[in-house]
Amino acid sequence: MCVCGDLVVSWKCLVLLSLRLLFLVPAGLPVRSQGDPQSDSRVMDNITVRQGESVLLRCPQGNIVTHTAWLNRSSILYAGEDKWSVDPRVSLVTLNQEEFTIKIENVDIPDEGQYICAVQTRSRPRTASVHIIVQVPPKIMNLSKDIVVNEGSNVTLMCLASGKPEPSITWKLLSPGVNSFASEDDYLEIPSISRHKAGTYECTAVNEVSADVQTVEIVVNYPPSVSESRDVGASVGQQAVLHCEAEAEPPADFEWYKDDKRIFNSFDGIEIDNTGRLSMLTFFNVSEVDYGNYTCIATNKLGSANTSTVLYEVIEPTSSTLLQDKTSVLEKGTSSDYTIWEGPGAVQDGNCGNMGAHASLCLLVVIVVQLLLKF
Ligand SMILES: *[C@@H]1O[C@H](CO)[C@@H](O)[C@H](O)[C@H]1NC(C)=O
Ligand SMILES: *[C@@H]1O[C@H](CO)[C@@H](O)[C@H](O)[C@H]1NC(C)=O
Ligand SMILES: *[C@@H]1O[C@H](CO)[C@@H](O)[C@H](O)[C@H]1NC(C)=O
Ligand SMILES: *[C@@H]1O[C@H](CO)[C@@H](O)[C@H](O)[C@H]1NC(C)=O
Ligand SMILES: *[C@@H]1O[C@H](CO)[C@@H](O)[C@H](O)[C@H]1NC(C)=O
Ligand SMILES: *[C@@H]1O[C@H](CO)[C@@H](O)[C@H](O)[C@H]1NC(C)=O
Ligand SMILES: *[C@@H]1O[C@H](CO)[C@@H](O)[C@H](O)[C@H]1NC(C)=O
Prior knowledge:
11% of the residues lie in helices and 46% in strands. By secondary structure, it is mainly beta. It folds into 4 domains: 126 residues, Immunoglobulin-like (Sandwich), CATH 2.60.40; 79 residues, Sandwich (Immunoglobulin-like), CATH 2.60.40.10; 87 residues, Immunoglobulins (Immunoglobulin-like, Sandwich); 55 residues. The strands form 4 sheets. Strands 1, 2, 4, 5, 6, 9, 10, 12 and 15 form a 9-stranded mixed β-sheet that branches. Strands 11, 13, 14, 16, 17, 19, 22 and 23 form an 8-stranded mixed β-sheet that branches. A 5-stranded mixed β-sheet has the order 18-25-24-20-21, with no helix packed on it. The termini are far apart. Bound molecules: 2-acetamido-2-deoxy-beta-D-glucopyranose (7 copies). One 2-acetamido-2-deoxy-beta-D-glucopyranose binds next to loops.
């Protein structure tokens, strides 16, 4: 009878067996296997459906159909208008001369597979098969928690997603001003992490259906580093501000010292103002005793750094002291706060750029030339 040696045709054998069991095929009518010119099996286009949606299975009937059935693999869902499936999601939509359509609601992954429409006409059996493919939107199931690490640690972020087809994963660093980089793996390896790689990492899982996006925060701790601060010049009675800037994570605590003596906020006429990475030491009314060497120490739990700034005296310029003061300021060499001297404009024009040994001489020449030009 039905010899089902060939795996390829086994589903067809099952169908024919089922039909026979149903007495759909009249006894005595020979059941033919594949290749028989009188039997006809057709493969319909695959149907792609998203999880949770409904799908219609439509089977063309043609003339003089005696029996017809829809099967899920080898089990009968509908035989004619008789429902065999106990699944409430399965229902009959249309059964007439033209078509035999059933509906499956709320489709889920186990519903994926081959569905067969078996039709018996007066003369011969006919089958049509259709493959239902179920798609599932991506969902990130297992994501690394936000972490705080020390600079130099090896960090691995994980982003595992489910979905059908299998979602692809991309990683991106979102922090502004940093070159964001992408990686395509469930695991993002960051060997020996630097402070520049701290920030918000975005994992995107995407497939044909949609995308899921989640973020992980990495905080990278590192010890303070202070930037070189400029010496500050001020006259008695003026206001002066010393700056100390420290890069650190967590943010640094600041301490100010004059020589070995700690300065506190309560000191008369002095205020320490810490805002994030910047500390400012303000003298509201500079007096002689304030001049000197100030040290700022920035500390966090990973270490400390310091820088020193000199508050030096500037004599208010008067016409009689002009030339003398200019020379004395130039002798200070590297000090950079000469704002007081930016009045005449002649200095810049004279091209005395380098404050070398001949600078004073050069300045004198320039001033003399300027004086001569005035006549
Ligand atoms: C239908 O889907 C199956 C399984 O994914 C695949 O092997 C087959 O090539 C597809 N057929 C068509 C006609 O797209
Ligand atoms: C189809 O058969 C599979 C396997 O037996 C089952 O898990 C699934 O629920 C069935 N689907 C329908 C719509 O009958
Ligand atoms: C996430 O992945 C880790 C490591 O693979 C595993 O130990 C953990 O059980 C997973 N958690 C969940 C909720 O799947
Ligand atoms: C980081 O990984 C490298 C190479 O795998 C290893 O040599 C190093 O010891 C690791 N560093 C830490 C802090 O674990
Ligand atoms: C600054 O201090 C001097 C001397 O201590 C005082 O005479 C002067 O009035 C003060 N100036 C201001 C603006 O407070
Ligand atoms: C200021 O003090 C610091 C620390 O005591 C010292 O290293 C530095 O040389 C001093 N700077 C000047 C200009 O004296
Ligand atoms: C300041 O930093 C130097 C190294 O840069 C260190 O040798 C010195 O001890 C520090 N001074 C203080 C007061 O912390």
